[in-house]
TrEMBL record:
Its EC number is 1.2.1.16. It comes from Penicillium salamii. One of its GO terms (biological process) is carboxylic acid biosynthetic process. It catalyses: succinate semialdehyde + NADP(+) + H2O = succinate + NADPH + 2 H(+); succinate semialdehyde + NAD(+) + H2O = succinate + NADH + 2 H(+). Belongs to the aldehyde dehydrogenase family. Pathway: Amino-acid degradation; 4-aminobutanoate degradation. Residues 33-488 form the Aldehyde dehydrogenase domain. GO terms for molecular function: aldehyde dehydrogenase [NAD(P)+] activity; succinate-semialdehyde dehydrogenase (NAD+) activity. GO terms for cellular component: cytoplasm. It comes from the Eukaryota. Gene3D superfamilies: Aldehyde Dehydrogenase, Chain A, domain 1 (3.40.605.10), Aldehyde Dehydrogenase, Chain A, domain 2 (3.40.309.10). This is Succinate-semialdehyde dehydrogenase.
Length: 494
């Protein structure tokens, strides 16, 4: 068992500190270590090391030393290591899910689903590792032969958010290791224990020392980020998080012209056309995407556009379903939706609701912080009569608010959906195949769900356009983010 009592976290922490870069706890001033907080209760779960720029540099040096050996590891050996890590994660599924529920707040069953999702990236990239083929290329110069090989980019810095404490990490480390890179993962300050437990399992899976390193930080986040994004030994930064922080890190990473991939915020439109027969399936899909992670998912529907002819009925059925949700601490039986990550997150949701209602929106259900449960709990909310001057139309709410807009024509709704700086996911419900293609192709996003509320699948490329970032994770494309293509030209080959 990886956890059960607070004591066990400490042993995880000590084990894993010693294998990361041989820094013993005596070297460090532990007085400034960070508290990990349970968002459901506000209680301290445990204490985690607060690393700084010097620690980060040591981790980078460890990853750099390991890279010179690991890059030559045969691809089938890389595959075997990733597979073993996947297997250990699945064997410890419930323990990891406990950590996720504890630190992030999501209900335990949702946390279990995340652990499976997280493991799937390691399984997937264990299968991609043996297939890192190059090309032989027909040439225009007589007597030449041209071929390409794929090489690992080098030491990678990975920065991930708290909303998927396990899956966002494995979605980056899986392809990095498959490609032959070594990594330093800066875990989210809010959910460090899940990251640490994953690293401990990597160690137990036999992943060589220095190949996978983690740095935990909360107060020192900016200095750790500065060290990672400017150190010349780091050749690639892969970041998942907000567009605001993404822009900052991109500026920093430009100082040494690092390769970057950026998975940033979204504001997904969900469009229900008049040609559908089955409103209930569309309602179910809205619930799946809007309220996943209690609305704290980058691909959550943020703007729900319902054709005028279905608007009233759709709103009625959605409200009935949302009123059945059971909000509470994630470990409690039958709870469907947990707390938000902090009280500031809940306040932001309250501000979005207040802004909308001050401009004419009506609250069909919910709308308030649930004070008796605590400052992080927010009522699942449905808003009607939304308009495009409201903050929800242009800002990601990242909370449990389903905002219903009405539209008349296909052209109008495409324009409204695209009237946004970000473009991660979009969803459309239509029974008209021509319209499906027309609209899917017109939407300025990286992913379109058609007649489904879920686009997340290890085998499907995940990523955005516009200010949602660039690069793709998962799928056959995910590994390319961690590879350089080298061209070898042979002359005189007559
Ligand atoms: N596109 C995607 O795949 C995807 C996936 C999950 C979340 N997200 C987005 O992430 C956001 C929510 O996550 P969040 O609140 O943790 O985002 P955030 O940008 O605040 O933090 C993301 C990560 O960056 C770190 N960070 C913050 N400031 C930093 C700095 N100065 N230097 C280095 N690291 C720094 C945080 O500690 C965390 O690890 C939402 O906008 C969501 O849409 C996007
Ligand atoms: O929050 C964004 C990532 C969630 C997902 O991969 O579906």
């Amino acid at each position: 068992m990886l956890c059960q009592r607070r004591m066990d976290f400490c042993s995880v922490r000590e084990n894993f500190r010693s294998y990361r870069w041989d820094q013993s706890s005596e070297d460090r001033d532990l007085s400034s270590d960070q508290e990990d907080i349970d968002p459901a209760t506000g209680n301290v779960i445990g204490i985690c090391p607060e690393f700084d720029a010097l620690d980060t540099t040591k981790a980078i040096n460890a990853a750099s030393d390991a890279f010179s050996v690991y890059r030559h590891t045969p691809v089938r050996e890389r595959a075997r290591l990733l597979r073993q890590w996947n297997d250990l994660i699945l064997q410890n599924l419930d323990d990891l899910a406990i950590l996720i529920t504890w630190e992030n707040g999501k209900p335990f069953t949702e946390a279990q689903a995340e652990v499976k999702y997280a493991a799937a990236f390691l399984e997937w990239f264990s299968e991609e590792a043996p297939r890192l083929y190059g090309d032989t290329i027909p040439v225009s110069v007589q007597g030449n032969r041209v071929l390409t090989i794929k090489e690992p980019v080098g030491v990678c810095g990975l920065v991930t958010p708290w909303n998927f404490p396990a899956a966002m990490i494995t979605r980056k480390i899986g392809p990095a290791l498959a490609a032959g890179c070594t990594v330093i993962a800066k875990s989210p300050g809010e959910t460090p224990f899940t990251a640490n437990a994953l690293m401990e399992l990597a160690h137990r899976a036999g992943i060589p020392k220095g190949v996978v390193n983690t740095v935990t930080a909360l107060a020192n986040t900016a200095e750790v980020g500065q060290a990672l994004t400017t150190h010349p030994e780091i050749k690639k930064i892969s970041f998942t998080g907000s567009t605001r922080v993404g822009k900052l890190l991109m500026r920093q990473a430009s100082s040494t012209v690092k390769r970057v991939s950026w998975e940033l915020g979204g504001n997904a439109p969900f469009i229900v056309f008049d040609d559908i027969d089955d409103i209930d399936t569309a309602v179910t899909a809205v619930i799946a995407t809007k309220f996943r992670g209690n609305g704290q998912t980058c691909v959550c529907a943020n703007r729900i556009y319902i054709h005028r002819s279905h608007y009233k009925e759709f709103a009625k059925r959605l409200v009935e379903r949302v009123r059945d949700f059971k909000v509470g601490p994630g470990f409690r039986q039958k709870v469907t939706h947990g707390p938000l990550i902090h009280d500031t997150a809940a306040q932001k949701v309250a501000e979005h609701v207040a802004d909308a209602t001050s401009k004419g929106a009506s609250v069909l259900t919910g709308g308030n912080i649930i004070a008796e449960l605590g400052p992080t709990f927010f009522e699942p909310t449905v808003l009607a009569n939304m308009s495009h001057d409201m903050r929800i139309a242009s800002e990601e709410t990242f909370g449990p608010v389903a905002a219903l807009f009405s539209f008349e024509s296909e052209e109008e709704v495409i324009n409204l959906a695209n009237r946004c700086d970000v473009g991660l996911a979009a969803y459309i419900f239509s029974d008209n195949i021509k319209r499906v293609f027309r609209v899917a192709e017109a939407l300025e996003v990286g992913m379109v769900g058609v007649n489904t509320g879920s686009v997340s699948d290890v085998s499907a490329p995940f990523g955005g356009v516009k200010q949602s970032g660039f690069g793709r994770e998962g799928s056959k494309y995910g590994i390319e983010e961690f590879q350089n293509v080298k061209t070898i030209t042979l002359g005189g080959m007559f």
